[in-house]
Write a structure and sequence with these properties.
33% helix; alpha+beta; single chain; BirA Bifunctional Protein, domain 2; binds glycyl-adenosine-5'-phosphate; five-stranded mixed β-sheet; 468 residues; 15 helices; Rossmann fold
């Protein structure tokens, strides 16, 4: 599949590999499952962690103009009034009166009536669905409720009384914690514009139509940056961040052939954005949003200033000027990137095993930077003298990241397992090791093996991982 990479992998193949190998499990499975929830197994947890660490290293640690933040999931409910989410963060929803199935009206119009839903009001959608005599995709009835707005924020209550005064929301984006802490960060960090604040954390959305495995979730993680600038410089920084996002996607291993950018049309823009460009990925279910870049203007800081009564202006000492900064926002979803990385890394090729038998080799060609295991250490057989050296080698190499030690099954099957979970290197301890203290390193992608003295292994692995 690699050569030319014409077709993408089937989604079922990824779902099944993810479950079988411990990347992603269906949520609450022993209780019969909880629809549209997922848990990340040992390999998924490593992959997620590596992805978030890579993001933090690339966007925060390596830049002088960036700071980190870890804001709360529960924020004052007025935050979401100021941000516009109480009023604007809605999906249009319609119910079938007969079977009670619930749909997003815009999706129905686009997929079943094959017309654009861009710019349609709630009233327009109601009329179009009634007039088109659309049949319910589940039961075939033609009896629809009017379309109504459904707010995507999850609600909960602080304290024992469930009433309006104790109502709080689970944050639907991490961004707002950055805006409401903007003033404190400026005061405590002595930063000067332009600078940015980045945050990684959970967000929650009560999506009406979640699905496509972990593409659209109710609970997910975002990695977001708010970059504060002078208003007249917005185009320069928009371009800068578009390039940085593209560079990051390549850095974590994406190949360019299944990536493209797409600018939002005027009707499609979020309520806070003047310009948005999405990076889209060619998922098994088509080109879909992977992550995005928005010019949020001074919308959020201005609204928080208005709603909180706090002065959120910034004083530019060199120009002796006070203003509300404008914002460029690069945003990424962890699980969505993870799904795209799984699809992008997946490859199948004809191969021949150690006994000369042909088989289809499944390999995840992860960049070593994000691969769950950096290497696997394998004694050729489960003999005490080989096991002892192998365990010692594995212990020593763990300074470079997660190293798997595996002594079960035949060596061929162990190589296959490591290929399938994307481990870049397999280090094998064999009988020659006992004579001359050398081991073999097998490269996942080329399947080439070279012999290296144990004393050089640390340097060798570090060099290989760093050059990735
Ligand atoms: N602060 C801006 C913001 O939240 P968004 O386009 O709604 O913008 C940003 O979300 C990113 O978060 C998306 O590009 C996507 O990667 C991820 N994302 C959004 N909704 C999601 C969902 N329901 N499930 C998984 N990931 C989601």
């Amino acid at each position: 599949m690699e050569a030319g990479r014409a077709s993408t992998v089937r989604l079922e193949t990824i779902v099944s590999l993810a479950k079988r190998r411990g990347f992603v499990y269906p949520g609450s499975e022993i209780y019969g499952g909880l629809a549209n929830t997922w848990d990340f197994g040992p390999l998924g947890a490593e992959l997620k962690r590596n992805l978030k660490n890579a993001w933090w290293e690339f966007f925060i640690q390596r830049r002088e103009d960036m700071l980190g933040l870890d804001g709360g999931i529960l924020l004052h409910p007025r935050v979401w009034e100021a941000s516009g989410h109480v009023e604007e963060f809605n999906d249009p929803l319609v119910d079938c009166r007969r079977c009670k199935s619930r749909f997003r009206a815009d999706t129905l119009i686009e997929e079943k009536l094959e017309r654009s839903s861009e710019g349609l009001s709630i009233e327009d959608m109601t009329r179009i669905i009634q007039e088109s005599n659309l049949a319910c995709p589940v039961c075939g009835a033609r009896d629809w409720t009017p379309v109504r707005k459904f707010n995507l924020m999850f609600r909960t209550f602080i304290g024992p009384v469930e009433e309006q005064s104790t109502l709080v929301y689970l944050r639907p984006e991490t961004a707002q914690a950055i805006f409401i802490n903007f003033k404190q960060v400026v005061q405590t960090s002595r930063v000067k514009i332009p600078f940015g604040i980045g945050q990684v954390g959970k967000a929650f959305r009560n999506e009406i139509t979640p699905g496509n495995f972990i593409f659209r979730l109710l609970e997910f993680e975002q990695m977001e940056i708010e970059y504060f600038i002078r208003p007249e410089t917005w185009e320069e920084y928009f371009d800068h961040w578009l390039n940085e996002m593209a560079r990051f996607l390549r850095w974590i291993g994406f190949k360019p052939d299944r990536l493209r950018t797409r600018e939002h049309g005027p009707q499609e823009l979020s309520h806070y954005s003047k310009k948005t460009i999405d990076f889209e990925y060619l998922f098994p279910f088509g080109w879909k949003e992977l992550c995005g870049l928005a010019y949020r203007t001074d919308y959020d800081l201005r609204r928080h200033q208005e709603y909180s009564g706090e002065d959120l202006t910034y004083f530019d000492q060199e120009r002796n000027e006070r203003f509300i900064p404008h914002v460029i926002e690069p945003t990424m979803g962890v699980e969505r990137l993870l799904l795209a990385l799984l699809c992008d890394a997946y490859d199948e090729e004809p191969a021949v095993d150690v006994n000369g038998n042909p088989y289809t080799r499944v390999v995840l060609r992860f960049n070593p930077r994000i691969a769950p295991y950096k290497a696997a250490v394998l004694p050729l057989m489960r003999k005490p003298e080989l096991v002892e050296v192998a365990r010692e080698v594995a212990r020593e190499l763990r300074q470079h990241g997660r190293i798997e030690y595996d002594e079960t099954q035949s060596i061929g099957r162990r190589y296959r397992r490591q290929d399938e979970i994307g481990t870049p290197y397999c280090i094998t301890i064999d009988y020659q090791t006992l004579d001359d203290r050398t081991v073999t390193i097998r490269d996942r992608d080329t399947m080439q093996q070279v012999r290296v003295p144990i004393d050089r292994l640390n340097v060798e692995l570090a060099e290989r991982l760093q050059s990735a």
